[in-house]
Amino acid sequence: GRGRTDHTGKCLCTVCKSATIKGRDIMEEYEVVSIPVSDGTEKEFAIMDTFTVEEKHYMAVSLIQEDEIQEGVYLYRYRDAEDGDIVVEQITEPAEYKRVSRAYEAR
């Protein structure tokens, strides 16, 4: 029910079980980020990993569709924005992408 604080998201009582949406489990396990994709829409991705290459920050993300994490990993560069948020940028340089994917695969 609403307003009850004695349950956690992992609670298995029937009320909580029926109220738990799959997507919420993803939100609890992974940080979720919205990234604009090539068709101009924004899609939600689960952050699988973050790492640094040559003092730049990168993230490995997987697409979330119908509350399930899809196979396949996409690599993006990110930086901290002044408002405390993060700015996600596409890696457009083929050489940079190669370096980053090598670093990711070596993890």
Characterize the overall form.
globular
Low-confidence stretches: 1-9, 14-21
Give the number of helices: 3
Helix content: 10-25%
Which sheet architecture does the biggest sheet show?
6 strands, antiparallel
| Beta-strand content estimate | 35-45%
SS-derived structural category? alpha+beta
C-alpha-based Rg, rounded: 17 Å
The separation of the N and C termini measures 43 Å
Mean pLDDT: 82
Tally of DSSP β-strands = 6
Taken in chain order, the helices and strands follow as HHEEEEEEH
Gist of the model:
It contains three helices and six strands. The protein is an alpha+beta fold.
Which key phrases capture this entry?
107 residues, alpha+beta, six-stranded antiparallel β-sheet, 3 helices, disordered N terminus
Task: Describe this protein's structure.
- The protein is built from three helices and six strands, in the order ααββββββα.
- It has 107 residues and is an alpha+beta fold.
- Strands 1, 2, 3, 4, 5 and 6 form a six-stranded antiparallel sheet that branches.
- Strand 2 and strand 3 form a beta hairpin.
- The longest helix is centred in the C-terminal third of the chain and has 12 residues.
- The chain is globular.
- It starts with 13 loop residues before the first helix and ends with a helix.
- The N terminus is likely disordered.
